[in-house]
Amino acid sequence: MIIVLKPGTSKKDISHLVAKIKKLGLKPWVSKGVERTIIGVIGEEDIIRAKPLEAFPGVEEVLPILKPYKLASRDFKKEDSVISVGNIKIGAKKLVVMAGPCSVESEKLLIEIAVAVKKAGADILRGGAFKPRTSPYSFQGLGAKGLKYLAKAREETGLKIVTELMDVRDMDLVVKYADMIQIGARNMQNFNLLKEVGKTKKPVLLKRGMSNTIKEMLMSAEYILAGGNFNVVLCERGIRTFEDSTRFTFDVNAIPVVKALTHLPIIADPSHATGKWGLVAPCSKAAIAAGADGLIVEVHPNPEEAFSDGEQSLLPKNFEKLMKECAEVAKAVGREM
Q1: 234, 219 in Cβ contact below 8 A?
Q2: How far apart are CA 268 and CA 142, in angstroms?
Q3: Same structural domain for residues 141 and 10?
Q4: What is the rounded distance in angstroms from the CA atom of residue 140 to the CA atom of residue 307?
Q5: For 63-94, how does the pLDDT look when each residue is reduced to its tens digit (9 = 90+)?
Q6: What's this model's pTM, rounded to 2 decimal places?
Q7: Are 138 and 174 in the same domain?
Q8: Domain tally, the chain
């Protein structure tokens, strides 16, 4: 349920209303827009319907939220959310590009890649310290050592870092080193993990599960928002279909659909979506044209020797070319790189 307040409603009246909502055993979330303030109320709506909220000072109207994802919906917040990762703004006019290796392999190599992607215009360095692999015999990541290498690369280049969190037992460690926490496709519905991430204020990159609907992705985002963390960025990374010519099927139409349903920003992962480096550039440009707020791209100087996902990783020179091409598309749709 949404309580729409009149323009100019005093802080005292807002505090009084919030206290009343809490007394009823419900959760209030105050959102201050450009023109007015609204209060989202989470919990049993029958409880609050029985109360004459319109009688409270400053209340203009009370509206139900019909969608199951209350806080993530456009009903709750009409304006686009802009998520800050340090001084980087995701969801603003400038598109944000995250780039780096699939796995953190060594300090020297990681810094080499970080320098290259920074020079090409990337904003955030990506790299997996903990890796979810289909086979238990595949490289699982360097763990804490990998996080320290990422921190070193940040120190050397100034790039913010995003890395995946797989287990609540690693929460404190990842929060300590990362500027942004990635929840991967395989953990999109790990609800206990989402609840714990919701307790932090750390920005979260939530990837769509490979077999999940858009609604299910938004419900997963709702877990994080309901925990009090509104710093959520969604990611379309391809879904599993009957088509086998690519690693996954890049669901580009999900981008404008998500834009219509939620105020949260969304970026695209053309590397995982296609699984082939030669398809990363065209799908990146398609994502930008469809309204994506950024990209996350895998880059490696020697893909043949990469510990994971070499076949979808761009060489630094190809990433530089991609950035220049994407800048033209961004300009055409009123955005910038």
Answers
A1: no
A2: 26
A3: no
A4: 10
A5: 877 788 989 999 888 899 999 999 999 999 99
A6: 0.89
A7: yes
A8: 2
Residues 90 and 59 in one domain: no
CA distances from 107 to 8, 119, 178, 234, 302 (A): 54, 18, 16, 29, 15
Residues 253 and 181 in one domain: yes
Average pLDDT over residues 288-306: 95
Q: What mean pLDDT is predicted for residues 269-296?
A: 97
Task: Identify the domain containing residue 177 by its residue range.
Answer: 83-332
Q: Is residue 68 part of a domain?
A: no
Q: What is the pLDDT of residues 119-144, one digit of tens each?
A: 999 999 999 998 666 666 566 678 89
Pair (87, 193) in one structural domain: yes
Say what the pLDDT of residue 137 is. 55
pLDDT tens-digit series, residues 237-246: 999 999 999 9
Residue 26 lies in a domain: yes
Q: Are residues 26 and 167 in the same domain?
A: no
Residue 4: its H or E element: strand 2-5
